[in-house]
Amino acid sequence: MPRDPASYRDPAGHVHLIGRKVYRSILPPGVEQYTTARNSGFLDLATRSGRLIEGREVAPAVLGDEAPGAVHVLEHPRIEFISYPYCWSFGGLQAAGLLTLDLHLDALEHGLTLSDASAYNVQFLGPRPIFIDYLSLIRYEEGQVWLGYRQFCEHFLNPLLLTAKTGVAFQPWFRGTLDGIPAADLGAVLPFRTKLNPLIAMHVVVQGRMQRSMTAGRTKAAKKIRLSRTALMNNLRSMRGLVEKLTPPSSQLTPWQRYEQTAHYTTEERAAKARFVGEVIRASGAQTVWDLGCNSGEYSEIALGSGATSVIGFEPDPGALNAAYQRATTKGLNFLPLSLDLTNPSPALGWRQRERMGLAERRNADLVLCLALLHHLVLGRNLPLGEVLDWLLTLAPRGVIEFVPKEDPMAAQLIIWKPNVAPDYDRDTVARMLRERACIEREEIVTASGRMLFAYSRP
Amino acid sequence: MRNRVPVTVSGFVLAVALGLALTPSTAQAQYLDPGAGSIIVQAVLAVIVGVTAGVKLYWGKISAFLSRRSKSSGVR
Question: Best label site of A84, A276, A305, A369, fewest CB within 10 Å?
Answer without folding.
Answer: A305
